[in-house]
Specification:
Strand content: 25-35%
CATH topology of one domain: Nucleotidyltransferase, domain 5
Distance between the termini: 140 Å
CATH architecture of one domain: 2-Layer Sandwich
Largest sheet: 6 strands, mixed
Strand order of the largest sheet: 11-6-1-2-3-19
Number of strands: 19
Number of helices: 12
Shape: globular
Structural class: alpha/beta
Radius of gyration: 35 Å
């Protein structure tokens, strides 16, 4: 395998499903070697609630992957989300005292990754901008300065929660290479570079959460996690009609709509375990439940977007994830967000025996984890090469010319004063003149 081709394995540990993918990646191409998915039982809203159930679900996913591919990997990339994930903007600076090099950029990001609060660990530090002498610069390499300043969007997670995810993966027989924030992974799979440059918002409606990533000028400027997802909608239908969760999920996918249907109602018969006691589900009532939850999610996203974009998002809003499969979602999203809506799934550059299975919105995250894992490996290789180069000697910064001293204004010389005549000298002259007269 050449340096540009990497074997990448990733696991998306969600509330409703666990998906595992192994692929060979090179230059943006994903050649899928194996794929497995299983039902998730131990996760809720991105948090491990039952370790044994989570490990069992991960193992089942790995076993299904092994049915099509002789798994020969020991490390995986893992996605995380949930309310325990927090974001904040931080500023770091590194001493240059000479010419800015790639080494300084790496040192600056490492500093940002090490800025954490007690009880938390840094998941990612996303560059927002560089600045030198108070001026924002796009690429500081080659510039002269004393200090280089970097502004970063730092994503952290509670250490205990992150460790629980890692523990479950370890108990399933694998090591965690690193973790990525799930909405950023989904964004890699479904957004174009042009959309990121213009400014776009991604909504990933998963089972337990709806994740948001907002881009501006090609960079992530805002992320958020909304604790409502497709599983919440399914639970509403189950509780309303007294059916099983599996039946409610099937009804939602087959007959549900994100827009309340005003035409003649249709009743859907649902079988129960008891004889002659089937349940009839009203399609209109089910759509009312779905619409209410989707409006709640979209209004929460709209509130988050207003912190970044006062007006419309230039490149529109892209929606993905399993929750985006509900009928008429784009219509209600367009009405609430007052923006262009695109429903998306990962389709580009995915090949291999399981490619068609992954070209669905519910697998955007796991495909994105593979893509980010590949970029991560290339970044590590680049960092290794840069940091192993001899460190250049610091170059003195050219001193700024000191201002020439301003001469002090000359004080005017005092005018010579005429000697004052004393009264005594005048009287003496007068007396001498009288004596001469006599």
């Amino acid at each position: 395998m050449d340096d540009s081709k990497k074997l990448i394995a990733a696991i998306d540990i969600g509330t409703t499903k666990i998906a595992t993918v192994a692929a060979e990646c090179s230059n943006g191409r994903i050649d899928v070697l194996g794929f497995g998915a299983s039902q998730s039982n131990g996760i809720k809203h991105g948090v491990v609630r039952n370790v044994d159930d989570t490990v069992k679900a991960i193992t089942e996913s790995l076993n299904k992957l092994g049915e099509s591919y002789d798994a020969n990997f020991s490390e995986v990339y893992v996605g995380i989300a949930g309310q325990y994930v927090k974001t904040a903007d931080n500023t770091c600076r590194v001493l240059v005292n000479g010419t800015v090099t790639q080494r300084h950029l790496i040192e600056l990001r490492d500093m940002a990754m090490n800025v954490v609060r007690p009880g938390s660990e840094t998941i990612d530090a996303i560059l927002l901008s560089y600045s030198i002498d108070g001026h924002i610069v796009e690429n500081p390499i080659g510039m002269q300065c004393e200090y280089l300043i970097g502004n970063f969007h730092v994503i952290t997670g509670q250490t205990m929660m992150v460790n629980n995810i890692k523990k479950c993966v370890n108990m399933a027989g694998l090591d965690v290479r690193t973790v990525f924030l799930e909405p950023l992974a989904s964004a890699e799979a479904v957004l174009t570079e042009e959309e990121k440059r213009k400014g776009v918002a991604l909504i990933d409606i998963g089972g337990g959460t709806s994740d948001l990533a907002v881009y501006k000028n090609g960079e992530v400027v805002h992320t958020a996690v909304i604790p409502i997802g497709g599983a919440t909608v399914t639970g509403d239908i189950r509780d309303k009609f007294g059916i099983t969760y599996e039946q409610a999920e099937s009804m939602k996918c087959m007959y549900g709509s994100a827009v309340h249907i005003t035409s003649a109602d249709v009743s859907i018969e649902v079988k129960t375990a008891r004889v002659n006691s089937n349940i009839y589900v009203s399609r209109n009532e089910m759509s009312e439940l779905i619409q209410a939850r989707m409006e709640e999610i979209l209004n929460a996203v709209k509130f988050q977007l207003e912190t970044v974009y006062a007006d419309n998002v230039p490149a529109g809003i892209v929606i993905t994830g399993g929750g985006s499969l509900v009928a008429n979602l784009s219509q209600i999203a367009s009405f609430i967000m007052k923006n262009n809506i695109r429903l998306a799934c990962p389709t580009s550059n995915i090949v291999g025996a399981n490619a068609d299975s992954l070209k669905r919105p519910q697998y955007s995250t796991v495909v994105g984890l593979v893509m980010k894992g590949y970029d991560y490996e290339l970044g590590l290789r680049k960092k290794e090469l840069v940091m192993n180069e001899p460190k250049p000697a610091p170059q003195p910064v050219e001193p700024k010319p000191e201002p020439e001293p301003v001469p002090e204004p000359k004080k005017p010389e005092p005018k010579p004063q005429k000697p004052k005549k004393s009264f005594g000298s005048v009287f003496k002259s007068w007396m001498d003149k009288l004596e001469d007269d006599e």
